[in-house]
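Issue 218. Parser rejects a valid record. Input:
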Amino acid sequence: MSSSTSRQAPVIVITGTPGTGKTTHAQLLVEESPVPLRHINVGEWVKQKELYEEYDEDWQSYTVDEDKLLDELEPITSAGGVILDWHTSDIFPERWVDLVVVLRCDHSQLWERLEKRGYPLKKVQENNEAEIMEVVLDEARSSYAPEIVVELKSESTEDLESNVARIVQWIDAWKQDHGATNQ
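Output the parser choked on:
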């Protein structure tokens, strides 16, 4: 296993309630990053690589086989230069992660975003409640050192651009701290 000191680029987790803009942030960050980053949409990966136990019709989601998922991700994260985009973060071992970005969104705006996705009402309600109760933020804060968990508002294009610029600055600082060279 490689430690973060030997990586040329960090491992960043972008998390948040569904609809907070994780994938959009990750995609823009790949474009703007001063180091090469690979974006892994973990939910899509689980489907494509069949890293699940079953499909839950009620919730219209997969029950993830966490062991299989972690086995698939271990060599990728140990190499570094990856963004893990998922609605949960506590599954990832602390040794993998250099930064956890928790995206937050006003619940009424989130409700509209989830309805536009065609989510069933039950799923819209549960995700909205999770956002109000800060479930994802609490999970990140209880799983990782406080200095690597950052909460960012994600309600507008301005927020998106500002957030990505902040993360790019963080990556520059990470590179300096870790003596990483441009590849």
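Fixed in the parser; the record now loads. The CA atoms of residues 111 and 124 lie 6 Å apart.
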